[in-house]
Design goal:
Shape: globular
Largest sheet: 2 strands, antiparallel
Structural class: mainly alpha
Number of domains: 1
Oligomer: single chain
Number of strands: 2
Strand order of the largest sheet: 1-2
Strand content: under 5%
Number of helices: 12
Radius of gyration: 19 Å
Distance between the termini: 47 Å
């Protein structure tokens, strides 16, 4: 992976533009009171700017403008979902509106990624996985640093093994935006939260990159780059269903929430643990290139470990 001096200058300019855009958004959010106020289910205690993740959408749009719009359907999908998510950050929208925007985004992803018709079961299975992953990414965005650190554990290995020059450019723009957001979010007292616009747009972007890698390698093992989130979200959903709770209502029963809120472990430490676990798996998948069954066994082992830690956490809290 090597770049020309012109490309380095471009990346530097992009970083400055995105930083200025984020700072400008902070002023706008302050003026229009786009603030996340803590409640009994929150993992923070002071009012904090919501929607700082708008920088991820701006990075994708800036990449498209400077690279002649190489992925128009992706841009359409992520923009539609991003706008709806931002409106939801400002004033809560109905679940049907949010869900519809996710469906539209996933359809756009399929159109962008596929060049010929696929069996219907692929669309159904892929759609379920994609929509589930988008919502999973949103649910897991609950403490300082977790979204940015975890996204880096996926994006950096993808970037370092990327062979498509256009995708590589997009990954670098995304990397820049995540690092800038991390500066304001991954701290003891966050300056901003990603908001739905951040978690949703970042989820769609990462799903596109994973989808492209799946098609390029003719293997579904890149999905293992979501393993840690899948284990936490899947376990928590099943646990809540068994308790006959509404899985769509806010709660604080994810393991990362229990560790942060009940055991009072630093948000950044918990976020870093999640990211390092996923980074380890990402390296096994993309560098060691372990097989599908190895990924499944690894996921089961992580699930067993997760269960043990969560049971112990309940006992201590």
């Amino acid at each position: 992976m090597s770049f020309s001096s012109k490309e380095y200058i471009t990346f530097s300019i992009v970083a400055v533009l995105l930083l200025l855009a984020e700072l400008a958004y902070f002023r706008i959010a302050d003026k229009f009171n786009i603030i996340d106020k803590p409640n009994q289910r929150s993992s923070h205690s002071i009012p904090t700017i919501r929607g700082g993740g708008i920088i991820f959408l701006l990075a994708v749009l800036l990449f498209s403008v400077l690279n002649n719009w190489p992925y128009p359907y992706l841009i359409a999908g992520v923009t539609i979902a991003g706008i709806i998510s931002f409106l939801d950050d400002i004033k809560s929208l109905s679940s049907s509106v949010r869900f519809t925007s996710h469906i539209v985004a996933v359809i756009c992803l399929f159109i962008q990624l596929t060049t010929e018709p696929l069996p219907i079961w692929v669309y159904i299975a892929g759609g379920v996985i994609a929509i589930g992953s988008i919502n999973m990414y949103n649910f897991m965005d609950g403490i300082n640093g977790i979204t940015s650190f975890y996204s880096l554990s996926i994006l950096v290995p993808l970037l370092l093994t990327e062979e498509n020059s256009t995708l590589l450019q997009m990954e670098i723009y995304a990397l820049i935006s995540i690092l800038i957001f991390s500066w304001f979010n991954a701290r003891k007292k966050a300056r901003c939260f990603a908001g739905d616009i951040g978690s949703i747009t970042l989820a769609i972007l990462l799903l596109f990159l994973l989808g492209a890698r799946i098609l390029n390698t003719d293997s579904i093992t890149p999905l293992a780059l979501l393993t840690v989130y899948v284990v936490d979200s899947g376990y928590t959903v099943i646990e809540r269903l068994l308790k006959k709770e509404n899985i769509l209502t806010p709660h604080r029963t994810h393991l990362y929430q229990l560790l942060s809120n009940e055991l009072k472990i630093s948000h950044l430490k918990v976020s870093l643990i999640y990211a390092l676990l996923q980074l380890f798996i990402s390296i096994l998948v993309l560098y060691i290139k372990i097989h599908l069954w190895s990924c499944i066994l690894l996921g089961i082992a992580l699930l067993v470990l997760y269960h043990a830690i969560k049971r112990k956490t309940y006992q201590l809290s």
